[in-house]
Amino acid sequence: MHSWEGDPPQQPAPDYGSAGARTDLSPDRSIDPRAGSWRILVAICTGILVALVLAAGIARGAFADITRLLTPHTKSEPASLAQLSQHEIESLNHQMAQQQAELLLERDINHYGGANDEIAARVDGWRGRIQLRPQLNSLITTALNSNDLRVRVAGMEVDLAAMNMAKTPKSAARLREQAQNSDRPQRVWALWGLGLLGNRGVETEKASQILAAQLHDSDPEVRHWAVEGLAYLGTDESITPLLQTLHEDSSPVVRERAACSLARLGMLTQVQRRSAVPALLAFADDSSLDSPTHTWIFQALRDITGQNLPSEISAWRSWYSSSSGE
């Protein structure tokens, strides 16, 4: 479908011949259908009608294709090849570190091939050169909620670079000190950083010990961020303290975050999350827990297993028995 600029060009008038342009015909005078000019006129009119019908059909077909693509019920239609383009790769070296980080993280979130590798190759050079401006901060948040753990890793790496946090034992030691002996804002920041560094292999066991210990702090905000740190630490040892927090913490906010961490958040794998199902089933059958906690437990079970069962322990135990072969 063309889009004209200004008026469309005028088409030349058909040449009907001298008889076709006659002006001396009176209303009661008939035209001889055998005349050549009349046959030409009929053929032209017929052709015009056919063309209009065909054009209308094509237009309807094209519009149907457009509306088909625009409906929310159709299958995904790729807009382009999901690959970092050569043009983008070549232009990266001419961009500031902030622009590189924002472009590559956006592409990685959208699963463009090559973006994750480019982030891995460049992120250490971004440390101290990028800042948590609104756009980058939003991209990091989106990456940390991706359904792809590789994208979550990229989000953590970019976050560490933006916080100018070196992935070294010295950085981890400083964070452990802050997590125990600083005021609340510094402790919160340190707990988050310990989770990220520990996931990246920097003194993971020590990070786990500090984070688990902070789950018993008197400040619920500190406990909340200890939960977040454990979720992003993502070790097998993180699961038990998260379950204990869901069952025992006095703060509904902290209990909810523990349930979310077991179900979806952080760096636990699907296999690790499934290992929490037996404990969650026991919690669902525990009458000492309040109604909101039971709601979060059943939500966690649905998120982990993909089963859309009612909030009834009998239904869940029946499913678990059949699915585990017991």
If you consult CATH, what is the topology of the domain at 169-324?
Answer: Leucine-rich Repeat Variant
- Quaternary structure state of the chains depicted: single chain
CATH superfamily of the domain at 169-324: Leucine-rich Repeat Variant
DSSP summary, beta strand count: 0
Low-pLDDT residue intervals, each spanning 5 or more residues: 1-35
Termini distance? 63 Å
Major β-sheet profile: none
As a percent range, the share of helical residues equals 55-70%
Order of helices and strands: HHHHHHHHHHHHHHHH
Gross morphology is flat
- The first-level CATH class name of the domain at 169-324: Mainly Alpha
List the total number of helices. Answer: 16
Structural class: mainly alpha
**CATH 2nd-level architecture of the domain at 169-324:** Alpha Horseshoe
In words, what does this structure look like?
The protein is mainly α. Among the domains are: 94-162; 169-324, Leucine-rich Repeat Variant (Alpha Horseshoe), CATH 1.25.10.10. Helix content is 64%, strand content 0%. The protein has 16 helices and no strands. The chain has helices at residues 36-70, 86-92, 97-109, 115-126, 134-144, 149-162, 169-181, 184-199, 204-214, 220-233, 239-248, 252-263, 270-274, 277-284, 291-305, 313-324. The protein starts with 35 loop residues before the first helix and ends with a helix. The model is unreliable at 1-35 (pLDDT under 50).
